[in-house]
Write a structure and sequence with these properties.
By secondary structure, the protein is of the alpha+beta class. The protein is 31% helix and 12% strand. It is built from 14 helices and 16 strands. The chain has a 5-stranded antiparallel beta sheet, with helices on both faces. Helix 1 packs parallel to helix 3, helix 1 crosses helix 5 and helix 12 packs across helix 14. The protein is elongated, with a radius of gyration of 27 Å. It starts with a strand and ends in a 24-residue tail after the last strand.
């Protein structure tokens, strides 16, 4: 595949070709296939259609083939060193850079001394795609006078009733989004090339919303991943997963839970567990304990959870329901040596992505600093914040991934499966497995076995391809796996 700057389209290319000679192509709505495209006309067609302003609907609402609700993960070939969407994003940026350089030469041909930044600023009000910028280069006067179609486009690009005003730029935005989310890297500075109102409209068209902190968020990301020290059975018993750390206000509408868009990224956390991370968390017997335990105590003095609602230190400042305020207890989990990888079902839940906000929404940070606001974005490249209620993230939405990162099952199904394979109904296999984990056993195989038993019982599981990176948008839930009502 090769991008032709003159035509503003991609073109099929044989392996032995230096210059692409195949047909012109456009990406289909499924993000995986291509369709034939007619070469661009000499003059860009500016659609003057009027009608109600359109926001791209969620995929379930679409009556037929249209733009996807989620920027799809484009297919990658094993022979490529980077996914196709990364190469597309990089190519788009390189093409725009070369076009601006050529415009600089043309505009300076009469002795002017416009810098590249000044040329970009001069083009910014026109809100041009690479295809349109190519046409601008061919027709702009040496004194900088733009052709009439460009002046018309400047106006129509800001017309909210123009249903086609994002057609070209959306094709360039898609690979940029995927490169940011899955690769942590962007290439085109959209803030420098498009006016703020136009860019805000484009982002809304692409599925972004803004919360009370002015952070960009999406509700159509199907899943996220997290490495965590807590066992799946703890989440089932409690009914929810509480945020492991208080991330404070400023990113999500409600409480924030940190997660990653990459299964591999969650795997890296697990590989560091007990060495570089996770030690402090093991000093808490449950996720409801406010204070860590004391290793100077003995296991026999360990306080039962039901007796732990007294405020041993007289704090009295924690109003969160169900918090355990005892301090004088032995941390029964401090020998734990393994951590777990979880998949979160995040359908219809607010997610604030890190890189997409830094790349497209840095004005929100700058404005917040000026006004003394609380706005901030997640820190890590592949990180996103999930917005959850004060109760936490529902266990109905949590799946445990096995130790080979090839299969996941719902924690509720895993827990119930453990009782289906025990002779007593008062103590399930899960309780014994969990106690072994707390004692320091490397017993991930026990959890893997339960996941396989869930699959054998024809309960829902998610299978991941072996040897391929898996990202949030790769996760597809079976039609019979309904979106949980609880968050």
């Amino acid at each position: 595949m090769e991008f032709d700057a003159a035509m503003g389209l991609y073109r099929a290319k044989l392996r032995n070709e230096l210059t692409a000679s195949g047909p012109w192509l456009l990406l289909n709505a499924d993000g995986k296939t291509w369709r034939l495209a007619s070469p661009a006309q000499k003059r860009p067609v500016v659609d003057e259609q009027s009608g109600p302003s359109q926001k791209r609907p969620l995929i379930e609402e679409q009556p037929g083939p249209s733009l996807p609700a989620i920027p799809p993960r484009l297919p990658s070939a094993e022979t490529e060193t980077a996914p196709i969407y990364v190469e597309m994003a990089r190519t788009n940026a390189e093409v725009r850079g070369k076009l601006l350089e050529q415009l600089q030469v043309r505009m300076n041909s009469r002795g002017a001394h416009n810098s590249l930044e000044e040329v970009a600023a001069a083009m910014k009000p026109y809100n041009l795609s690479n295809r349109q910028l190519t046409q601008m280069l061919a027709e702009i006067q040496t004194d900088g006078t733009a052709p009439q179609w460009a002046e018309n486009h400047k106006q129509t690009s800001m017309d909210e009733t123009n249903v086609n005003r994002f057609d070209d730029t959306y094709q360039e935005l898609l690979p940029e989004i995927l490169s940011l989310r899955n690769n942590g890297q962007g290439f085109t500075d959209f803030n420098a090339n498009f006016t703020r109102p136009y860019l805000d409209g484009l982002l809304a068209y692409a599925g972004y919303n803004r919360n009370k902190y002015n952070c960009l968020y999406r509700t159509d990301i199907p899943a996220m991943f997290r490495g965590d020290d807590r066992t799946p059975f703890e989440f089932v018993r409690d009914g929810h997963m509480l945020p492991r750390a208080d991330l404070g206000e400023g990113s999500t509408s409600q409480k924030a839970v940190s997660a990653t868009f990459s299964l591999l990224d969650a795997k890296k956390y697990i590989s560091r567990f007990g060495k570089q991370s996770g030690i402090e968390e093991l000093q808490y017997n449950t996720q409801y304990h406010k204070y860590p335990g004391d290793l100077n105590n003995t296991p026999s003095r360990d306080t039962d959870l039901s007796d732990g609602d007294s405020d041993g230190g007289g704090s009295g400042s924690d109003n969160e329901s169900g918090r355990v305020k005892e301090k004088d207890y032995y941390p029964k989990r401090h020998n734990q040596s393994i951590a777990f990888c979880y998949l979160f079902d995040t359908r219809n839940i607010e997610i604030v992505p890190a890189r997409e906000n830094y790349h497209f929404n840095r004005d929100a940070l700058e404005q917040s600093k000026k006004t003394g606001g609380k706005t901030w974005f997640p820190d890590d490249d592949l990180e996103g914040h999930i917005s959850v209620s004060t109760r936490g993230f529902s266990a109905d939405r949590i799946w445990l991934v096995n130790s080979t990162f090839t299969r996941a099952a719902r924690v509720n199904d895993i827990y119930s499966q453990s009782y289906d394979h025990t002779e007593t109904s008062s103590r399930g296999e899960a309780d014994m497995i969990e106690e072994m984990t707390w004692a320091g056993a490397n017993n991930m195989g026990d959890y893997d076995a339960l996941i396989d038993q869930v699959a054998a019982a024809n309960k829902p599981v998610i299978n991941f391809p072996v040897g391929k990176e898996v990202f949030s948008n790769d996760v597809v839930f079976a039609p019979d796996v309904a979106t949980p009502a609880s968050v």
